[in-house]
UniProtKB/TrEMBL annotation:
Gene Ontology annotations for the cellular component aspect, listed alphabetically: plasma membrane
Alphabetical list of Pfam families matching this protein: Competence
Domain (ComEC/Rec2-related protein) ranges: 193-438
Classification lineage: unclassified sequences, metagenomes, ecological metagenomes
Keyword Transmembrane helix: yes
Protein name (record): Unannotated protein
Keyword annotations: Cell membrane, Membrane, Transmembrane, Transmembrane helix
Compartment(s): Cell membrane
Membrane-spanning intervals of the chain: 15-32, 39-58, 214-235, 242-259, 265-283, 290-313, 343-365, 377-409, 429-448
């Protein structure tokens, strides 16, 4: 209901949208009334839905009120400079509004040495038209800024960075320095696996990861967050309850900033923060309740997440793991795998996540390749090991001489090479579409089989 209200907020004067959302609200109210007989639940749903619609409407008004014309002054980098072809793309914040900027030549080369959060002095022209791209607007970008002159601040480009941003950027730089000893393109793939930086990956690598269904490995998700907390656990568990909660939330916030606040990591960090808070106060929530609370809270904070494909893929994957894993596991156990726990722990998560993201993936990208499931089964465990030990080893490697650093990073290089090899092999298989559909729907058949077995029982 909150998601539909956010969708209505884009065009509150649309009669068709209003009727659809009103119908959904009435159906939900009747369902709640029939099941709980408590009208206060309906009141809370209506109140939160109204707030979501209002927040969405305000955000759309904000991207519609823009300033254009010449500008000379300070600008803050909101994204890392991304090389694309011969140019560099970056998002700049000027007077609280975000502009997309493309740079070429010497300006582009100087821009690539900067990172998100730094401040520069610019002179150029802000261009805003009535036909601003919808895809840019839902990322809070209101127009384009043509840079004519750019220079670093005389007292240092880190002037506007917060302590969190400065710490995150320094750790990110140290990780890149530690991975420099990896040969070829392995360092760029390592950056994608460990902290989601795929800006330096060559187009050929991006293509083979997409074709093999492994592109999600280079996007930070709940798995990365879990590994970060695992690395920090020996220290966190020694603290008192409230100090442990405070430091856990700080670690989560730092990791989210270091990975540039991507929708998937925002979802994962918020779920982890809610779980840690509830645990600290002695409460208990089910996983689906944590996910639902996360969705509602984040949509109220940033309604434009509703238009993010990465957000929906992350929500879909989490929903599959939470709601479908037990059903798929029960079916496989009924087929004689009851005593093979390592097989179940290896296969079930991949099948559940694949089924969870399937609706969004089909609508946006088409049917996933049939090789996606076997490629994930082969690559994900090794990628998980790289994610788990990658940060401490890369940080240590950054402080050591080249020979010792190469020896220390060698196991990670083997893991990264394995993941890349699996992606390359998966790209070579060009299977018929009917096989892609059949393999993609196979986990759904397991869920339906579980449901039929319950009905027979």
């Amino acid at each position: 209901m909150v998601a539909s209200s956010v969708w209505l907020g884009e065009s509150v004067h649309s009669v068709s949208r209003f009727c659809l959302v009103l119908g959904l609200g009435c159906a939900l109210s009747l369902l709640v009334r029939a099941k709980h007989q408590q009208m206060w639940i309906v009141f809370v749903v209506c109140l939160v839905s109204f707030l979501a619609c209002w927040r969405s409407h305000i955000e759309w008004q904000n991207v519609g009120r823009t300033h254009s014309g010449d500008y000379s002054g300070l600008a803050v980098l909101k994204t890392d400079p991304q090389p694309i072809g011969r140019g560099v793309r970056v998002v700049l914040e000027i007077n609280g509004q975000r502009f997309e900027s493309w740079m070429y030549g010497s300006t582009a080369r100087r821009m690539t040495s900067l990172v998100a959060g730094e401040t520069i002095s610019v002179k150029g022209t802000r261009q805003v038209t009535a036909t601003t791209n919808h895809r840019l607007q839902v990322r809070h970008i209101v127009g384009r800024f043509d840079v004519k002159v750019m220079s670093n601040l005389a007292i240092g480009a880190h002037i506007s960075e917060s302590r969190f941003e400065l710490a995150a950027n320094r750790i990110r730089s140290a990780l890149g320095k530690g991975a420099r000893v990896l040969p070829g393109d392995q360092s760029s793939l390592f950056a994608g696996l460990v902290y989601g930086d795929d800006s330096q990956q060559p187009p050929e690598m991006v293509d083979r990861f997409r074709a093999s269904g492994l592109a999600h490995l280079t996007a930070v998700s709940g798995q990365n967050v879990a590994f970060i907390l695992t690395v920090a656990a020996p220290f966190l568990t020694r603290l008192r309850r409230w100090f442990r909660l405070t430091l856990t939330l700080l670690v989560l916030a730092w990791f989210a900033i270091m990975t540039r606040l991507e929708p998937s990591v925002i979802r994962a960090v918020t779920m982890a923060g809610i779980s840690a808070t509830v645990f600290a106060i002695g409460g208990r929530l089910k996983a689906w309740q944590v996910l639902a609370t996360t969705c509602i809270g984040l949509l109220l904070i940033d309604p434009f997440l509703l238009w993010s494909v990465g957000w929906w893929l992350s929500i879909g994957g989490s929903s599959g793991l939470i709601l479908l894993s037990s059903r798929i596991r029960s079916t496989l156990q009924g087929w004689g795998l009851n005593n093979h726990h390592w097989v179940l722990n290896w296969v079930v998560p991949s099948l559940a996540a694949q089924l969870g993201v399937l609706p969004v993936a089909v609508m946006v990208f088409g049917w996933p390749s049939a090789v996606a499931i076997p490629c994930n089964l082969l690559a994900v465990p090794v990628a998980g090991i790289v994610m788990l030990i990658g940060i401490p080893l890369a940080l240590a490697s950054a402080l050591l001489p080249g020979t010792i650093a190469s020896f220390m990073m060698w196991p990670l290089g083997v893991g990264v090479k394995w993941v890349d090899t699996v992606a390359a092999l998966g790209q070579r298989f060009n299977l018929p579409i009917w096989l892609d559909i059949a393999v993609s729907l196979a986990p759904l058949l397991l869920v339906m089989r579980h449901r039929c077995d319950n009905l027979e029982t």
